[in-house]
């Protein structure tokens, strides 16, 4: 769906001129990530509503997801890109369409003889070729996943033209080939400290896929960290500190006590549905159950497993500890379709290095034997002189040089994923001392490597080139950027997390697919900045921007007159917006009920309190019960505030209060989607008058 573009992302409207400067039909427009190679020829392939999508019969059911399943998703996405055009059903054919056919055809096929290489020389099944003639657009890969990425290229080229004002879409004739530089191109979301429902996670996969990101690493168990609660003789505060495990065991399971917040956990069916959505968009879900550190939720369930004096650490020498961890994996391994899982294994006591290494190696062997899956761990300092972590385990580097030195790991035969915090860490809403940015730092990603070069997965240090490696390093698998939620549920809404991820995913997609200064076709920062807003608005299959079509101008709806209850049919509206209304509460109970509700938020009468994902944020204003009060709510992606009785000199902001490591409290602004679905609910007996919702703050 081509939606409303947030003008704050554009800087100026001149991007449209930039996008259409080349004569269409000569070259491909810059897109995200960039295409490795394209040689134009004469003519164009014109996309029309009569276009048909054809899948070669003998390959249609190959793979999981199959080529036909990917084609079905592509068809839906293309309808979305073309503003809900109704395309013909997918056809199966054993013949490549004739280029002289009068019906424009997109043909999806496989060629097992095709071979694509990562930068390190390893084979990949994610590459694709495409050939464009006046009436046929052919996408071929060695496997269905490569064809899927080819459909993302097709959709972006169409979206860029439509976003530039084109009434018809034309693709330049020619031949192209494309494949990723690295195998692992992912993002990690801390879902252990912040609850997210699976529909949101599925939407993140769909959005990430548009930029050819192929993994979502779910950090699914953890706890808030507050030393005053966790440590010290006789300290019992750890028993009540927030900790969570997100996979919900079946009723009656011996693991019931592991999930203290069942309303903040995923049932098996919910998880499988989300995982299938991700897989159908080329994204593997990599689940993480973090042990033996970050294990407070396990120790709250079974205190006897805890390391003395460290309630968030497991005592690995206690007889029942490792069998308990194995029982957890026994229950949930069958849920997971990816060939790898993460056991976390970071920030454990370095004095217990041998116990740690023995545990990690034993879990690697156990998980491999019982599921055929390999494991990943976070890079962790384990200064043993007698033992070493198995080289079957991938090390996800994050802390240079405190926990590991990746060039040394790779030289010693370990496979490494780059999650270096200097480049690739985010924290929800804020970070201690401003250590991490709100979104991946564009300056760092485009020019923050040594010598002013751009970042790529082979770059670990911004200052020391000897601690970086070449793009073709054989043991470098790729990179994952991480968004942590150190301050818990109340710090952010899910959509605020998306706002932090959105541009980050796009630039990360370019840098992990193409790298920096590797291919002549790689994007410049100017090109990225120009095209990103168009693609963010056009990304199909989800509506994380909460875009709606205005009734007229920028007006979503307006309801003059008085109402006690009304359903508008509009579930939610993303910022920027202004919601204005007058309200007179029920004189008998002036705090009762909900004024407005939607799929992402509610606004309660009491203290004008916003609710999002079960968290409450009070404005602290009490509505008078004997008269009408005029309220204007103004929201951007950075804040939400109210003007009461048109008092522009005294805006009132909705805030959250965050506990930063138990050291100090930090105030943060909140951004809420408009609760646009329902007026009046939950016992509201007052009157709402003259409601108006517009797309401006």
UniProtKB/TrEMBL annotation:
Domain of life (superkingdom): Eukaryota
EC number in record: 3.2.1.52
Residues annotated as domain Glycoside hydrolase family 20 catalytic: 184-514
Keyword flag Metal-binding: no
InterPro entries assigned to the protein according to its UniProt record, in alphabetical order: Beta_hexosaminidase_sua/sub (IPR025705), GH (IPR017853), GH20_Enzymes (IPR052764), Glyco_hydro_20_cat (IPR015883), Hex-like_dom2 (IPR029018), HEX_bac_N (IPR015882)
Gene Ontology biological process terms in this record: carbohydrate metabolic process
Sequence ranges assigned to domain Beta-hexosaminidase bacterial type N-terminal in this UniProt record: 32-158
A GO molecular function held by the record: beta-N-acetylhexosaminidase activity
Gene3D superfamilies: Chitobiase/beta-hexosaminidase domain 2-like, Glycosidases
Ranges in coiled-coil conformation: none
Active site: residue positions: 347 (proton donor)
Assigned keywords, A-Z: Glycosidase, Hydrolase, Signal
Reactions catalysed, as given in the entry: Hydrolysis of terminal non-reducing N-acetyl-D-hexosamine residues in N-acetyl-beta-D-hexosaminides
Signal peptide start-end: 1-25
Similarity comment text for this entry: Belongs to the glycosyl hydrolase 20 family.
PANTHER family reported for this sequence: BETA-N-ACETYLHEXOSAMINIDASE, PUTATIVE (AFU_ORTHOLOGUE AFUA_2G00640)-RELATED
Protein name: beta-N-acetylhexosaminidase
Organism lineage: Eukaryota, Fungi, Dikarya, Basidiomycota, Agaricomycotina
